[in-house]
From TrEMBL:
Cellular-component GO terms for this entry: phycobilisome
GO MF terms, alphabetically ordered: cysteine-type endopeptidase activity
Name the UniProt record assigns to this protein: NACHT domain-containing protein
This protein's record includes keyword Chloroplast: no
Source species: Planktothrix serta PCC 8927
Top-level division of the source organism's lineage: Bacteria
Keywords of this entry: Antenna complex, Phycobilisome
Presence of the UniProt keyword Transmembrane in the record: no
Gene3D superfamilies assigned: 3.40.50.1460, Leucine-rich Repeat Variant, P-loop containing nucleotide triphosphate hydrolases
Database matches in InterPro entries: AAA+_ATPase, ARM-like, ARM-type_fold, Armadillo, Caspase-like_dom_sf, NACHT_NTPase, NCC-H_dom, P-loop_NTPase
GO terms under biological process: proteolysis
Annotated ranges, domain NACHT: 361-451
Length: 1217
């Protein structure tokens, strides 16, 4: 049985100026009930918007009459005669009653474009005729609008005689009021909608087994009479029932034999119970025991989150020495960061969907081990339960997948556990899939790095498909794993957990932890504040390490360690003492258990899959049976915990260390010799061991270096091998490119090791060399060095950077040193002083602006820095916009800054500068009368719409209650409301020619209404053939904003390319094809063919961009782009193609092929004469080096290029059939 519904809720009526407020909400709720319980194959809503991953009713959307009529006709009389068994129309909006030209009283439905005269309204008798001629057996119409009783008065019976071949029809028509009455709202819904929702609720059992048209009709009328509040309204429902009762769905109490296919499940309750049960099973031993119980909320301190956003490219921002960066792909410009503090992330990103790529639908939380990623995910789950009405949070620990994909895990494991079912029925599976499709699910995927996969990000990307993809997804992942494979989840917005600030955040956590024993907390804070404790202060800004410290201090009240390994050792010792009374142990037992845990941890780390999930067979092989002393002790102490069963054998249990970092710590204890990590066989790497290049071993290596029981000579020998590693892949003697790809990787690992081995004789040299790499000409080297400079010994790095500032006059080097100080120096007084001095001394404009930016980040509250920026603002007018931007960060409420900015508004006539300065005043001048007066003057003077709009917004924020401003804003509103109406009129017109100023707004409006509308999309495609360039540009802009999903539309676009030689049309269509579903073979083939035919570089770039979106992993697309990279002489095309190749290559085989094909471009001649080609090839091969094992890369790099090229060209020129 097929069911289809059209649900319409119209609030906006621009021409009658009688807007509504609840119609869209009524429609949204009706659509939700039909989707959740009605087993409808299709529930289409108008006006629709994609929000939070689901199609919803747009509150301010418009619905034109011709669109509404078309959709009603398609519902009851589809063009293909594929009639559904049941069709339901719900309409909430205005209804109209007018006398016709024949002097008859007629009723109408009102679309958005209805005129005050009634023109464009939809007659009820037209709707009647649509029902009469329809072959749909079950017809339902609910009209919650004024005068809707005129529809039920229409003569249906007389018309039946004109359609003798129609099937037996069951029909239920409901009108909210009589013909001459108005429909009213009661609180948050229209009266009819309110009772329909109440009657359709399956969570009741008063009316019999099934909710159907007969008993629901009786229910809404009875309830209206029984409810004392509703009885007071004069409004009376009108209804017509014809034929047999139409079933909707069953009540919850129905027997299993009668149960409908769509089993009603309270998913909110189910998911919250599952989350609570999970919380019980994963209680952290850190926070419990010894008479102390800390809940998550007791000790939770919000961490800052940092989001990488695209830096706007503006002329003058890039120095001549760095001019090539103008043409870097935008991805490489993602350096400007936005920081969220406290609950800003929840309010702005989760609630409002303010994220640049996915609008809050695809989020990744990254960070180092113990950075609080899982804790934040738990808080997100709590937030979903507390702050949303209907959404459902589902948690999946990715390490538990065990060879299943996400969909299989949800259906086979999560669903069974959550429902407590003996077996999962197909009905349960369908119900879960429907829940996902409703867009209400938040899928929380914890621990991408813990998956048993060589490329976990690509694995996750492939599994977020089908109905699973309808959910909002949040993943957590260790930073190094994310960086190694980030292209696989490029559509995710990335937020990195920041460490706690010191002393504020660290102090707050310690005070919460020791709330019952504040004197212990104060003693710990005093110990941390002592001189010489800088390193440990930095170390415990990590939440897990700080929790370890608090627990150890609570038990032992001892001294503070210097390294991470020392901290974990201290915690291990404290744990034994903490458990001593319940589980007594002697020194010998502890050593034996530590050694055994080390062997087990190492065996687990060596697993190709599920490194952090240890099957019972492995555990008992190393520790003995679970009832034998060693294994039992590990379980009693909490070092190991039961976390589930093996997917291959449900009878075999699975265990895990209570946190992956402790598995890494014990694994480090089990490694006697550094040869375990590195055994280099230069001539045949396949015979060697290269764990130094495997990301899962990095933390183990760092912990190994922090061990006090390892001889210093062994550590020196190991770090020297890293510094002098020879990868055998080319000779490198170019300026600022002095190492091979894996030589850089080894050196950067040495840089990360320095904090754990601070007394290495090579430490200073390593830090110095890393900074030299920070000023490389090549972005890949520079980015890698910048990343490791943040990881290395901060005191050494800060001192070295300050020395660079003092000793060099090279502006590029100074800026790089300043940039890195901004990342690692915090509020370091020496760094601030030297940066302020540089700001005073340099005459280089770009250096001025960069240093101003940095001081804006690290000198918050520093009076000297504020004074210097104020002085610069007065002295250097060409860059005052940037300087002003930084004043907002450090000068809130500063009268001098406010006065200077207000003066700027008076002095400049540049609209962009005015807008920027106004923005800053909005941040720092709340309530300041002088600023308010100046902004009010600007509001009256400016003719720029954007500036006027922004200034009005700012005054609304900083001038609350100011009568003069209120009057001025009211006057502005009156002046601009007519313009909005004009735009609505333009939107309604059929003219394809649009003026420049209206193009964008018309695009905004039309893109919302054209989604899924085949007629509108066909018209837009036709407009691409128009002669008027502005018309074509507008059509292309709209098509780029909406989903182009149907085969017919895609075929039409491909045909347009095939039949048209106009470069502009080809380019626009190629751009639009980049918006369709990835993997469409026809579109990919069309783009590849066009790439081979066109010689226009701009078209080539557009095609490459589109292939980057829809041809990920496609062999022929990769080959053709490689060919273009090699033959094009256009630098911009090269950069784009190289960037796209980096996006679409996903397999190890493809990486190896790319290395072999491109390595011939890494030579001295190309370096000197075609540096851009050298740079792009280097960057691509660098990416390969981050994803291939060293032996794989070595083999690919050292094979003969001619053989590879010959095979490539043979493939490209193979016969076509």
């Amino acid at each position: 049985m097929t069911r289809q519904a059209l649900v319409v809720g119209i609030n906006r009526y621009p021409f009658t100026e009688q807007n509504l407020t609840l119609a869209s909400k009524d429609a949204e709720e009706i659509a939700r009930v039909l989707r959740d319980y009605g087993q409808f194959d299709s529930v289409k809503v108008l006006p629709e918007i994609c929000q939070d991953g689901a199609i919803k009713v747009e509150e301010k959307g418009l619905v034109k009459g011709e669109i509404l009529q078309e959709e009603i006709s398609k519902l009851f009389n589809p063009a293909n005669n594929n009639y559904p068994d049941t069709a339901l129309l719900f309409f909430a909006g205005h209804g109209l009653l007018q006398t016709s030209a024949q002097n008859e009283l007629k009723g109408y439905l009102c679309p958005s474009d209805v005129e005050p005269s009634g023109e464009f309204a939809i007659p009820f008798d037209w709707l009647r005729d649509e029902l009469i001629k329809s072959q749909v057996r079950n017809q339902i119409v609910w009209l919650d609008c004024c005068h809707s009783g005129a529809f039920t008065n229409e003569n249906f019976d007389q018309a039946y005689t004109t359609n003798q071949n129609r099937p037996e029809v069951s029909r239920w028509l409901v009108a909210a009021c009589r013909q001459f009455q108005e429909a009213v709202a009661v609180e948050d819904h229209g009266l009819l909608t309110r009772l329909l929702l109440r009657g359709l609720n399956p969570h009741q059992d008063e009316r019999g087994d099934w909710i159907n048209s007969t008993n629901l009709n009786a229910f809404i009328n009875d309830e209206r009479q029984k409810d004392p509040k509703l009885k007071t309204f004069e409004q009376r429902f009108r209804s017509n029932l014809l034929g047999e009762a139409i079933n909707f769905w069953q009540k919850l109490g129905a027997s299993e034999s009668q149960a409908p296919k769509n089993v009603p499940i309270n998913w909110r309750e189910v998911s919250q119970n599952a989350l609570a049960e999970r919380q019980k099973l994963t209680t952290n031993p850190l926070t419990t025991g010894d008479g102390v119980e800390h809940t998550l909320d007791d000790i939770y301190v919000p961490l800052g989150l940092v989001e990488k956003v695209k830096k706007e490219k503006r002329p003058g921002e890039v120095s001549p020495e760095e001019g090539s960066q103008f043409y870097q792909p935008e991805k490489e410009y993602e350096e400007v960061t936005r920081t969220y503090k406290n609950d800003e992330f929840f309010a702005q990103v989760l609630k409002q969907g303010q994220s640049p790529k996915s609008q809050g639908r695809r989020l990744a939380v990254t960070g180092e081990p113990g950075a609080g990623k899982t804790t934040l995910l738990q808080k997100i789950a709590q937030w979903v339960a507390a702050e949303t009405e209907r959404d459902v949070a589902i948690w999946v620990s990715l390490a538990d997948l065990q060879r299943r994909n996400v969909e299989e895990y949800l259906l086979q494991k999560w669903l069974k556990d959550a429902l407590g079912a003996v077996r999962v029925t197909p009905e349960m599976e369908d119900a879960l899939a429907l829940l996902f499709k409703s867009g209400r699910v938040w899928l929380l995927l914890d621990g991408v790095d813990e998956m048993g996969s060589s490329n976990p990000l690509a694995t996750v990307a492939n599994q977020i498909s089908g109905w699973v993809a309808s959910a909002r997804v949040v993943v957590t992942c260790r930073q190094n794993v994310w960086d190694a494979g980030k292209n696989a989840l490029e559509g995710f917005d990335v937020y990195r957990n920041l460490d706690f600030d010191y002393p504020e955040g660290v102090g707050q956590f310690i005070h919460r932890w020791f709330a019952r024993h504040p004197e212990l907390g104060e003693r710990l804070l005093a110990e941390l504040a002592k001189d010489g404790k800088e390193r440990i202060r930095d170390t415990v800004r990590n939440p897990l390490r700080l929790a370890l410290l608090c627990r150890a201090w609570q038990i032992r009240q001892g001294g503070l360690p210097e390294t991470k390994a020392g901290l974990y050792r201290q915690f291990a010792e404290a744990l034994y003492e903490w458990k001593q009374e319940a589980f007594p142990t002697k020194s010998k037992q502890r050593k034996e258990l530590n050694a055994a845990l080390g062997r087990l941890a190492l065996r687990g780390m060596e697993q190709s899959e599920s490194r952090f999930r240890l099957r019972e067979g492995l555990v008992t092989e190393v520790l003995g049976e679970t009832d034998e002393p060693l294994c039992k002790l590990a379980l009693d102490l909490g070092w190991l915990n039961l976390v589930g069963v093996a997917v291959e054998n449900p009878d075999e249990r699975v265990y895990a260390f209570y946190h992956p970092t402790f598995q890494e710590y014990f694994a480090a204890l089990a490694v006697d010799d550094w040869g375990y990590f590195l055994h280099h066989v230069p001539d045949n790497p396949s015979l060697g061991t290269y764990r130094i290049f495997e990301k899962q071993w990095k933390e183990v290596i760092l912990l190994w270096f922090g061990r006090e029981d390892v001889q210093k000579e062994k550590k020196e020998a190991f770090i020297e091998k890293l510094v002098n590693f020879d990868d055998g892949c080319g000779s490198w003697n170019y300026p600022k490119v002095d190492r091979g790809f894996y030589e850089y990787r080894a050196y950067f690992l040495a840089g990360a090791i320095v904090p754990e081995f601070k007394d290495s004789r090579l430490a200073d040299e390593i830090v110095s060399q890393i900074f030299k790499s920070c000023v490389s000409y090549l972005y890949s080297i520079k980015a890698g060095a910048n990343a490791v400079l943040v990881e290395t010994d901060s005191s050494r790095a800060i001192n070295h950077l300050i020395r660079i500032l003092d000793e060099t006059s090279d502006e590029s080097t100074r800026r790089s040193a300043a940039d890195n100080l901004g990342k690692i120096a915090g509020a370091n007084e020496g760094a601030i002083a030297h940066l302020s001095q540089l700001l005073a001394e340099t005459s280089h404009e770009y250096t001025h602006s960069r240093v101003a930016d940095i001081l804006g980040e690290i000198a918050v509250g520093n009076e000297w820095a504020s004074a210097r920026l104020n002085q610069l603002l007065a002295d250097t007018s060409p860059e005052y916009s940037r300087v002003a931007d930084n004043l907002v960060k450090i000068a809130v409420g500063n009268e001098g800054a406010i006065a200077r900015l207000s003066q700027l508004l008076a002095e400049t006539s540049d609209d962009d500068t005015r807008s920027r300065v106004a923005n800053i005043l909005g941040e720092i001048a709340v309530g300041n009368e002088g600023a308010i007066a100046r902004l009010s003057q600007l509001l009256a003077e400016t003719s720029d719409d954007n500036t006027r709009s922004r200034v009005a917004d700012i005054l609304g924020e900083i001038a609350v209650g100011n009568e003069g401003v209120i009057a001025q804003l009211s006057q502005l509103f009156n002046k601009t409301s007519h313009n909005d109406k004009q735009v609505d009129q333009l939107y309604s017109s059929k003219s394809p020619i649009l003026d420049q100023s209206s193009q964008r707004r018309v695009s905004d409006l039309f893109s919302k209404t054209a989604k899924g509308n085949k007629g509108a999309i066909d018209r837009l495609i036709q407009l691409l053939d128009e002669n008027n360039k502005l018309t074509r540009a507008t059509a292309a802009d709209i098509l780029n904003r909406i989903e182009i999903g149907t085969e017919g539309v895609i075929d039409r676009l491909i045909q347009l390319i095939d039949q048209n030689s106009d470069e502009l049309i080809q380019r626009m269509v190629a751009d639009i094809l980049g918006r369709i579903e990835a993997g469409h073979e026809g579109a990919i083939k069309c783009l590849i063919q066009l790439l081979g035919e066109t010689s226009a570089e701009s078209t080539r770039r557009v095609i490459a961009n589109s292939l980057g979106k829809i041809a990920v992993g496609n062999e022929e697309a990769i080959f053709r782009l490689l060919q273009l990279l090699d033959k094009t002489s256009d630098e911009n095309t090269r950069r784009i193609v190289a960037y796209i190749l980096g996006k679409i290559i996903v397999t190890d085989e493809q990486y190896c092929r790319l290395v072999a094909v491109l390595k011939h471009n890494l030579n001295k001649n190309i370096y000197q004469n075609k540096f851009d080609l050298y740079e792009q090839c280097y960057q691509l091969i660098w990416q390969c080096a981050q994803n291939l094992t060293y032996p794989e890369f070595y083999t690919a790099y050292n094979q003969k290029t001619n053989n590879v090229l010959q095979k490539l060209w043979q493939y490209l020129n193979r016969p076509r059939f």
